[in-house]
Amino acid sequence: MKNNIIAACLFLFTLAFQTQTFAQESQLLTKNKSFLGAIAKMKSYKAIYQLDSDDPKIIAKAFRNINNALKDPRLQGKLEIELIAFSGGTEAFKKSNSQYEAALKDLIEKGVHVVQCLNTLEERKIAKSELYDFLAYVPSGNGELILRASEGWVIVKP
């Protein structure tokens, strides 16, 4: 009989603990479900996307990330974006990689500044004529990131 009482007490304790845990989890799920994310309180936002890889998956991810940011309703009409390519990222800007031309032109049409580092061209002996004609240029990709960061731009590395 003593074992039955102990078993009953353990059962009741376990049941009470599980009920309390379920109630806590339910409150957390409800609280999380009502979360709406950050609110765009500022008049403008600026982001510079760093493209320094020739990996097609990374290049596609950069383009997708930029387009997703441009579609975010919280940022509509408030977002300025720059895409800076240097190092391996320069491959996405070469005419010989024509699979990227339409996507890059689309970004420019949406107001994105598409920019190439001149240091990379010099170091890799790449002529501007090998790149798309619609690009802008800066002396240094890293310098651009440093300057933009000091101006409050968010640096995004896909």
From TrEMBL:
The name this protein goes by in its record: Uncharacterized protein
Keywords: Signal
Pfam families tied to this protein: DsrE (PF02635)
Signal peptide: 1-23
Source species: Sphingobacterium nematocida
Domain of life: Bacteria
Keyword Signal: yes
Family matches, as Gene3D superfamilies: DsrEFH-like
InterPro entries linked to this entry: DsrEFH-like, Sulphur_relay_DsrE/F-like
